[in-house]
Amino acid sequence: MNPAPAAPGSRRLSLRARSAGVLLALAAVAFVLLRGGSRESSAPAAIQAPSPPAPAAAGWPDAVPHFAHGWVSPPAHTRSAHGSSLCALPSGDLLAIWYGGSREGGTDVSLYTSRLPAAGGGWTPPRLEMDRVMAQQELDRVIKKVGNAVVFPDPRGLLWMVYVSVSVGGWSGSALNVRTSADDGRTWSASERLTLNPFLNLSTLVRNKPIFARDGRIGLPVYHEMAAKFPQILWLTPGANGRLEDYRVRNLPGQAGLIQPALVPLDENRVLMLLRDRSADRLMHLSLSQDAGWTWSAARHTDLPNPDAAVDGLRLRDGRILIVYNHASSGRENLRLAVSSDQGRSWRSGAVIEETPEAEYSYPTLAEDREGRIHLTYTWRRERIRHASFNVAWLDQRSLAQDRAKLP
Question: 172 CB contacts (<8 Å, ≥6 apart)?
């Protein structure tokens, strides 16, 4: 006797269940592959050494304390502005990139750049570099939105832009794309989409600046957000004519819940990694590489709080490490500096850059110009991108004032 046919609704439910099961199985396999490894090559022999110690000659910018505040983006340029990245160009100019639109994740969000000329004057008017429509045309695929971007020159002087695009879902559905410029960002190559993950190529994001290997490779810190959240290093191999010859992503095991790695080279072999904490600990974490950024120690927490917020770091010319971060276990109401003289084992409190209850100051990025002056850009209340510049003399002056304030 033949069984009675199933109701149409139950057949649809069964098909949906089987489809969901297949997708979950594929996702599980992809997750194991993603966490377990990557395309392998060899470790770099060394990375570019950090800047030499600053001269102590009279008139050097560090001799007299200096601090200045300004703006990268003009008022009401976009309703929301966030996620700036900053670099010093071979010409001596500074270049900043950020995204702006009606809100984070909006379809109207675009990437903008502005330039601070070394010859003097203020930041140039924002210039639109990429939006959803442009990305669709260059990548030949549906793009829902664009997001985080970084810009940096390589040792040959070629300028790179790496930016996030999303075709489906939220930030966990992101992919990375690369453009290059041979004229300091005045013109750019078409976007090239990177294939980094084995399942639908989803969920790789970028935030901070890279390190540079002596063999020409670029070690860009990136991170993964789907299912589990962990840091990665994307090794880019530049080719001829400003194109990529190869790229390989390396996962960092045992770092779940830590994202947005920031790299600080200590010498030719050692690199310090700062990590944003999305776990319940809410503490800034550090990891150390002894082999030019190829393998990394298990991350350890510091005594500094981290309210699930981005951090950045810079090796000063005297060997100390400067970081900028939100000094709180929740909220982003303040933005603060700290300095380490022992390669991150301990930290000395520095100046408070911004502090206002219930406001937001976030996503800081640091760069040093060719004269040794330090530059900082950051999100100001999600409305504008703000710029601060200062020197080591000012930094030490403010750190000393903090120390004195702690005395009984």
Answer: 202, 203, 225, 226
